[in-house]
Amino acid sequence: MKLTVHTKGSAYDILMEHGILHHAKDHAGSGHFFLISDDGVPQCWRDILQSQFPESRMHVFSQGEASKNFDTLQAVLGDMLDAGLSRRDTVIALGGGVVGDLSGFAASLYMRGIRYINIPTTMLAMVDSSIGGKTAVDFHGVKNSVGSFWQPSLVLIDPEVLSTLSPRLLHEGLAESVKMGLTHDAKLFELFEQEDYEDHIDEIIERSLRVKQGVVERDERESGERKMLNFGHTYGHAFESYHHMNRFLHGECVALGMMKVIRNRELKDRVKAVLERLELPVSCEYDPEEIVKLVMKDKKADHGEVTFVQVDEPGNGYLVLWREEDIRKGLEI
Q1: Intervals of the chain under pLDDT 70
Q2: Where would I find the beta strands (DSSP E) of the chain?
Q3: What are the residue boundaries of the structural domains of the chain, listed by start?
């Protein structure tokens, strides 16, 4: 499968093919390369990539959201400088959302911006974070609060790498696809309500990519429609920060956030059933006042109002502005 994302300043391909990781070099272009990964990516996948670029340095940092900070970013940039990268060279990110976000941010900063290629190894990164150009690090306990828009030059998706993914990591990524089905693609959501959704993983990835492609092309800088892809994320990011980025995975917090924001009782029951089948949390313990404070610090907050995404029926998301009392009410439901 090949999709081409057209943005205002560029266009880049998304290639999905079983086994494409083994042929990454065939698609990477010319010049020098700098590889970035984390120690949560199985060694076998790192070795396959490294063997194709034997003269390129691979910077490997500790896995997890705790590494998504300025210290890691500085270490990566320093290693890039030591490797002698020029403005004509390319960063290749191999990993999940943390690797992609941090690598893309580093590429956007180095020499005022160089190419980067994203090779996602998790379901979450494949269906969502690897495309669209949103890069960031966490700062002062607030997720993704410092970053840039920097589109990749190429995205290579190899479903084979999911074979080493734990069920928990697979399911947290699928939470993002559930989100896209609810906001843009009713058929995608209905796939999760089927008994055999596990047999449709490639279709789920492709449908998710097509949703993300269309939204990014229509609203690259998140001034309107792209905000709808934050469905579940506003409460979700607050839950992540409240639990210090280590109790729940990102997709699990998105699941928690979706359950808090949906007001339609029938849809809420349908979503709850899907999330439970995916072994995702639908509730957790928290201090409501602390969650409200964190939500009001969200990057979508604007002078006492926060943009939330609401869904009443699958495939049709819309934006609403909530004030503090609305945010508190959502936590009570």
Answers
A1: 299, 301, 333
A2: 2-6, 11-16, 33-38, 58-61, 90-95, 115-120, 134-139, 142-149, 154-157, 301-302, 305-313, 316-323
A3: 2-164, 167-332
